[in-house]
């Protein structure tokens, strides 16, 4: 995934483009660049972060320009592969997010026609195609060029001497921010919040023609109207607010996120949500997701099976795309923070082709997932900037709890207890956060290890997976999440005094089995950190150290345990001096398969 930006207005474009790129950096950060025009086109780009580019680049003059922050797919991060890319004449510059799947063929054809390529990227064919078709009308040339292109794109075109930008999207997000005598095109909302809160979401197949005073949208050669939306996120939501990293800020926002996400429902006396996917004679539920969202899907499976008593499968969206099964009487749920994960979008389309109704749970209004789904429920996490997902996972859990309580088969008394338990969660999460210093101290030594295991059972098995993913992603320590019962089926071979094990011990029907696992681990000499509920006397006798979490109903234990493990990962990565918000090789949302 990459971030793209375009500005046209009555101000100098360079500082605005660089500021917007800083806000888009979470989408890709191995190289960046901008192009600005005041007559001819000037390009400045390199395989550096935006901060470094800003420091070293000369002043470029012009009130229209485009910018890009890259997560390399075709060609290594280098100056020549960084965007913007130019045509032969140097008059057409393009920034692009997505993948042009037929670029080899196009490159071959264009080379035969005399075009000269200098990069290894797929993107470079776009300015050359536009150059080929240009006969005095830029938007027509872009439209024609796009007919030759297969794959996905969000792109912005800048041409020397043209007082407009041309933008287009297919399977990659693109928005237009409406300003006062200026307009900004961007991959994502956080990029433009400093300038405007009024946006238009472009749809697949749209071509936007943007001048400083106006926006036109065309589709298949005809003008279309796209509704203006007001963004509820504020500039502060997308800033660090005094925290050293976005991740830490986002971890601390979780009590508010729980309140906001449940806010519109929790006032109701009883949970009642009408879900299209649950109507009719549904016999089972399939939940699809990737990464951290997949761990929310797994927790969802346990919640639903307990409350609804129907079979639920949680599957990786990326693998579902290879399944040859047919789905009968199955309700489908797609969980995705960004709403743009390529594997997820493909899986959702496949589900719809199979005739399934799909419910999307996503954090981004107007995202591709919300457009494909039959029904969408939005989480209220606000913008999540750190690559590591934290508060969005929490918001996903809240939606799952609430939805499933709406369809619950448990008796009235149990339901009342559950609603009460849910209402107390912001306070319980705050208690974990108040324990931050102890968690930081207690896990200092973890930063010295190279391999760590996380174990859990039942509804906390997915939390073991999530704890491991968080740790490996930001600290670069190899971490493996394991169903505690599976340890002795192989992973035991790796246990030693150099391999700490973090055991999640919940007060439910898994408790005794977890204690047995802990004893087995200790017998192999591994340092053992237990995550246990306050008041658990037995655990202190067995574990080398204990992180305590507040008492909650066992069904909510993933909530408090997750927050403790997020802090553990954060401080371990901090001790190791890692770039926490922007881990190497990763991007916030994975828009390629
Ligand atoms: O936007 P999505 O929820 O679809 O993203 C899924 C994963 O890419 C994402 O959760 C990823 O695993 C996170 N970086 C983990 O912290």
Describe the structure.
With 593 residues, the chain is α/β, with parallel strands linked by helices. It has 3 domains: 3-237, Aminohydrolase, N-terminal nucleophile (Ntn) domain (Glutamine Phosphoribosylpyrophosphate, subunit 1, domain 1, 4-Layer Sandwich), CATH 3.60.20; 241-423, Glucose-6-phosphate isomerase like protein, domain 1 (Rossmann fold, 3-Layer(aba) Sandwich), CATH 3.40.50; 429-580, 3-Layer(aba) Sandwich (Rossmann fold), CATH 3.40.50.10490. Helices cover 35% and strands 23% of the residues. It has an 8-stranded antiparallel sheet with strand order 3-2-4-1-10-9-11-15, with helices on one face. The protein has a 7-stranded antiparallel sheet with strand order 5-6-7-8-12-13-14. It has a 5-stranded parallel sheet with strand order 17-16-18-19-20, sandwiched between helices. The longest helix has 19 residues, at 557-575. The radius of gyration is 25 Å and the shape is globular. The structure holds 5-amino-5-deoxy-1-O-phosphono-D-mannitol.
């Amino acid at each position: 995934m990459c971030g793209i930006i375009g500005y046209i207005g009555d101000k100098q474009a360079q500082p605005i483009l660089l500021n917007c790129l800083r806000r888009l950096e979470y989408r890709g950060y191995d190289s960046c660049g901008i192009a600005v025009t005041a007559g001819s086109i000037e390009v400045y780009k390199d395989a550096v972060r935006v901060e470094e580019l800003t420091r070293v680049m000369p002043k470029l003059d012009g009130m229209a320009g485009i910018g890009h922050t890259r997560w390399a797919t075709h060609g290594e991060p280098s100056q020549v592969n960084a965007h913007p890319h130019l045509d032969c004449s140097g008059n057409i510059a393009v920034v692009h997010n997505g993948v042009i799947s037929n670029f080899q063929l196009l490159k071959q054809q264009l080379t035969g026609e005399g075009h000269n390529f200098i990069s290894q990227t797929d993107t470079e064919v776009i300015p050359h195609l536009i150059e080929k078709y240009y006969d005095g009308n830029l938007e027509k040339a872009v439209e024609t060029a796009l007919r030759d292109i297969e794959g996905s794109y969000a792109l912005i075109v800048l041409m020397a001497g043209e007082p407009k930008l041309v933008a287009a999207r297919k399977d990659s997000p693109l928005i237009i921010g409406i300003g006062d005598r200026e307009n900004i095109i961007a991959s994502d909302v956080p990029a433009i919040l400093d300038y405007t809160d009024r946006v238009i979401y472009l749809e697949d197949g749209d071509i936007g023609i943007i001048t400083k005073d106006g926006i036109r949208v065309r589709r298949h050669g005809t003008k279309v109207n796209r509704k203006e939306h007001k963004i509820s996120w504020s500039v502060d939501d997308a800033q660090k607010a005094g925290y050293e990293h976005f991740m830490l800020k986002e971890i601390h926002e979780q009590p508010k996120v729980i309140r906001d996400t449940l806010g519109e429902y929790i006032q109701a006396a009883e949970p009642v949500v009408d879900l299209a996917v649950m109507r009719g004679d549904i016999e089972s539920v399939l939940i699809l997701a990737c990464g951290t969202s997949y761990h929310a899907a797994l927790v969802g499976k346990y919640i639903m099976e307990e409350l609804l008593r129907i079979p639920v499968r949680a599957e990786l969206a990326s693998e579902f795309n290879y399944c040859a099964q047919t789905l009968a009487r199955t309700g489908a749920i797609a969980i995705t923070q960004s709403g743009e994960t390529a594997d997820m979008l493909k899986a959702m389309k496949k589900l719809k082709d199979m005739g399934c109704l799909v419910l999307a749970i996503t954090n981004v209004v107007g995202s591709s997932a919300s457009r494909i789904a039959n029904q969408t429920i939005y989480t209220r996490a606000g913008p999540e900037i750190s690559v590591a997902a934290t508060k969005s996972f929490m918001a996903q859990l809240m939606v799952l709890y609430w939805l499933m309580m709406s369809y619950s088969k448990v008796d009235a008394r149990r339901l009342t207890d559950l609603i009460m338990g849910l209402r107390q969660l912001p306070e319980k999460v705050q208690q974990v956060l108040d324990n931050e210093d102890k968690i930081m101290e207690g896990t200092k030594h973890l930063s010295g290890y190279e391999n760590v295991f996380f174990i859990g059972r039942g509804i906390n098995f997915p939390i073991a997976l999530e704890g491991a993913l968080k740790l490996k992603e930001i600290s670069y320590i190899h971490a493996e999440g394991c169903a505690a019962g599976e340890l002795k089926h192989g992973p035991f071979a790796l246990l030693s005094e150099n391999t700490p094990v973090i055991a999640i011990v919940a007060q439910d029907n898994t408790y005794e089995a977890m204690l047995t696992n802990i004893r087995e681990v200790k017998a192999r000499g591994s340092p053992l950190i237990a995550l246990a509920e306050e008041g658990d006397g037995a655990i202190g006798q067995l574990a080398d150290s204990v992180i305590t979490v507040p008492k909650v109903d066992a069904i909510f234990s993933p909530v408090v345990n997750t927050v403790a493990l997020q802090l553990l990962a954060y401080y371990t990565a901090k001790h190791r001096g890692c770039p926490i918000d922007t881990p190497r090789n990763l991007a916030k949302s994975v828009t390629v398969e």
